[in-house]
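User: My collaborator sent over this chain with a note saying "see what the structure looks like." That's all I know about it. Can you take a look?
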Amino acid sequence: MTEVLRRELVYIWYYFDLQFRQIFWYWVLGMAIGSAVSVFARDRIHGLFVRMKDAKWGLAGIVPACLLGIASPLCMYGTIPIAASFSRQGMRHDWLAAFMMASILLNPQLIVYSAALGSTALTVRILSCFFCGCAAGLLIRLICRDRAFFDFSGFAEQTSRDTDPNLLLRYLKNLWRNVKATGLYFLSGILLSALFQRYVPQTAMEKLFGGNGAWGVLMAATVGVPLYACGGGTIPLLQEWLWQGMSMGSAAAFMLTGPSTKITNLGALKIVLGIRRFALYLAFVMAFSWLTGILVNLIV
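Assistant: Without extra context I'll predict from the sequence alone. Here is the result:
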């Protein structure tokens, strides 16, 4: 190994270790809370949503639907079978749209992860995801009125894997699945962040994502499409980009387009939407993310 390569590896390890120490406990706490919600509170959250269908809230029901979607710990492939069950029980599709959109964008585990970005970024993420869910519900109401928007035919409700009679073992098994699902993405995100910190000049990040211009927000929204694989894996990257000059509006756009265009989420949504409505979904996500990023830059 040449001296130059050895020196570069030392630098990369230094940046990796520094960020790992800063974010690691957020990752651990996020998994612990996420597994606790999944094991002990998921059925209660979904039960609250089911009981909403008999309430005469009209459009106002979009708000609790969003909040319950954020509280739900399921990924999109877990959310869609649940949503199919809700639909068969007579749930309004504008409420379902709000629930599903919010569930795609945020969950208790990701909220804890995002705390590593600071209070401003955390607040922006929570509010932007909530309003995106509300906007999705309103859009479906305008388009369909009382007609169905989603096609859930062929989706049966998934059986839960959290069935061990021992509550502690049930929780630990869920936590271990969580570690396996997010661990590699988490470490990969820190490694990418270390490489950015070592080799990408700060001025380049400021030019690409900085300032209050609409172009930087659009670029961040676009980059979120191919880069996002796991919420925990993008936190180190976002932290590094914010340090290097990324505007908060650009970060908001990235945090919206990333999970909403994650490849597994798109695959699930395409099944229940069909081609034309799937294209409408993509247009909605990009437009809302861009406008939100511009608004956040004006405010923050």
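A starting point for your reply to your collaborator: The chain has a mean pLDDT of 85.
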